[in-house]
Write a structure and sequence with these properties.
With 209 residues, the protein is mainly alpha-helical. It has one domain. 61% of the residues lie in helices and 0% in strands. It is built from eleven helices and no strands. Helix 2 packs antiparallel against helix 11 and helix 7 crosses helix 9.
Length: 209
């Protein structure tokens, strides 16, 4: 399982399951999978350091890894060698487009803000660009034509989203790991189930349509 696999699962959950069916069996399984992946990629960093920087105090409130994840708390590192690639890109961008900004804006690279801003944008894009699923009601030719027109825009978006995905995945995993499912299951309680069957069984109940 790579960071890109994780991102794809996260976007699907946040756009399709979390808003409407988070408490359904497929929704609960997907949530457990995401929490396991957050732990496996070490993205559930203790928020104490982050809060000390931002608020000057530590919060003892119980954490929810899935809710904390978009804040990018794991990116607040004191190691200057961390995330050198993206820091270099940011510096080059500022040198090219914002030469006169104060030096503090060049030095204070809040990567957590970058991650949060891009991830929220990526969720919004996924809502628009996600492929249409299922059959058109009544096999409407007009609706089929509508999907055809929308698909043109969706294809353009999907083609141009690569750099954002690469940036998010780099921030999530500098090591470019591919974590075996067996390790996710044994060490992080990842539910390795047939989600298509789970969803099909759930949808077979007419109340869930």
């Amino acid at each position: 399982m790579t960071a890109q696999d994780f991102l794809s699962k996260y976007l699907e959950y946040m756009t399709i399951w979390a808003p409407y069916n988070a408490d359904s069996p497929p929704g609960k399984i997907r949530r457990k999978q995401l929490i396991a992946l957050i732990q496996a990629f070490e993205l559930d960093a203790n928020p104490g350091n982050f809060l000390e920087r931002i608020k000057g105090k530590f919060s003892s409130k119980k954490k929810d890894p899935l809710n904390d994840f978009p804040m990018g708390q794991f990116l607040y590192s004191d190691d200057l060698n961390d995330y050198r690639e993206i820091k270099s890109k940011i510096k080059s961008f500022l040198d090219a487009h914002y030469k006169d900004i104060p030096s503090k804006y060049r030095e204070e690279m809040h990567l957590g803000w970058l991650f949060n801003n891009l991830l929220l944008f990526r969720i919004d894009v996924h809502k628009i660009a996600y492929p249409d699923k299922g059959m058109d009601e009544g096999f409407s030719g007009a609706l089929m034509y509508s999907h055809h027109l929308k698909r043109k825009i969706k294809d353009v978006i999907q083609f141009n989203i690569t750099e954002i995905d690469e940036t998010l995945c780099y921030l999530m995993d500098q090591k470019n790991q591919d974590i075996p499912i067996s390790r996710l299951v044994s060490e992080f309680n990842y539910p390795n189930v047939d989600l298509d069957k789970t969803e099909s069984d759930w949808l077979s109940d007419s109340d869930n349509y």
